[in-house]
Amino acid sequence: MNVYLIRSEEISCSRFATIVDIVRRTIGPIKFIATDEDISVDDPDPKNKKKKNIDESKFTPQRLKWETLFRNCEVFREENKAIDKNDYVVFFTDNKNERNWFSSMDPSGAFNFFISTSGWADLLEAEEFYPVIYELATIPLMIETCGSLQEVENMAHKDYPNGNGPRGCPWDYCSNKKFVELRYRTGDICPDCRKKITENKVDPSLVRQVLAIMDDIRGQMLYKRIFPFIQQISKMEVNKRQGKLSFTDINNLSVHLGAREMAFYIFFLKHPEGVEFRYLNPKGVEEGNKMNKVYVNELRIIYESICGDAILARLDSAMKNFFKERSNILKNIKDELTVALGRDIASHYIIDRKPKSIKDGKKSLEHIHYIKLDRKNVIYIRDAN
């Protein structure tokens, strides 16, 4: 079963790549497919991207019509003739919709779907991409069990007083949004729905794959929920070639960074004592400042080792923009880590800053940028040094 995943432009490649990573690492008949364009964060030159992410902080959600959501899926099918009519196409968007639903199938019967990636924050004690992954994982299970959107709705467990209430099951209707989180906490299927799945002879390997994804995100959510009590810092694997940070104790949750962000991050990992921003300026090199020369050259070497040959041809130009945009790069890293890990856990991994101490014990006006994480929790995997 092929499930094609597409995103609207306001969803960043890195956020989308994290979702794709999690669903792809399970084994089973469902093959989740995303285009390289939608998940690539390696090219720092926006001219080389056909689809440009907009600034999410300035994004104003629209309220899309029902047919517009599924039209995006049809356009994707028209542009990719190899997609079979029985293949699934799932469209992710931060925009609202006129029915205020989190996800749905195309009422026409075509295997087109949308999932809303926003609006979950007020309902859950978890990062928003977890319910998005849950919705995605359960789509094949529901359709293979029910065959149509109408039958999915017929099976749904309606809220009180019109139904028997939610059960912590994918078929919970949740018209009352406060019941949404119950599904993710249980990561289970109720007895009635298990019986229906068996009666309709749904492929057991498909069911196992869906349950594995549900269990994966449940484990990640549980870790984050109890973190304030256990304060157990996860080890972090750094893969600079793939532009990926993986948190091994959080079910290998991954965060994807662009080439500039990854170079910047590795640079600060290698300086646990911290570095003043004023030294990360090529102008200081021209003026003969020794520390500027050391740090700038070191950052250049790291960046060069990450970039492909096409980028190396314009390395000098790229490096100038690198230092001009260092504050934005710093913000991008913080945003990606916070979205994936939550604010409390991310505070141990972001590049933070503190006043520089001086000899008489007073604080300097200069700030040192540093990563709080104990370096014994950092693992550089192959070719990442």
Your description of this structure?
The structure is a single chain. The protein has 385 residues and is α/β, with parallel strands linked by helices. The radius of gyration is 23 Å and the shape is elongated. The two termini are 39 Å apart. It has 15 helices and 14 strands. Helix 1 packs across helix 4 (129-146) and helix 4 packs across helix 5. The chain folds into 2 domains: 2-230, Collagenase (Catalytic Domain), CATH 3.40.390; 249-380. The protein has helices spanning 13-24, 36-39, 66-79, 129-146, 149-155, 180-186, 191-199, 204-230, 259-269, 282-286, 290-306, 309-312, 315-324, 326-341, 343-346, and strands at residues 2-7, 31-34, 63-64, 88-93, 96-97, 103-105, 112-116, 236-239, 244-247, 253-256, 275-276, 351-357, 363-371, 378-380.
Spatially, the strands of the biggest sheet line up as 2-1-4-7-6
Number-wise, the strands total 14
- The percent range for strand residues is 15-25%
User: Which fold name fills CATH's third level, the topology of the largest domain?
Assistant: Collagenase (Catalytic Domain)
Q: What structural class is derived from the secondary structure elements? A: alpha/beta
The largest sheet is:
5 strands, mixed
Helix and strand string, N-terminal first? EHEHEHEEEEHHHHHEEEHEHHHHHHEEE
What is the top-level CATH class of the largest domain? Alpha Beta
Unreliable stretches (pLDDT < 50, length at least 5) are 44-51
Looking at the overall shape, the CATH architecture of the largest domain is 3-Layer(aba) Sandwich
Helix tally equals 15
Structurally, the number of domains stands at: 2
Report the C-alpha radius of gyration, rounded. Answer: 23 Å
Helicity range: 40-55%
General shape = elongated
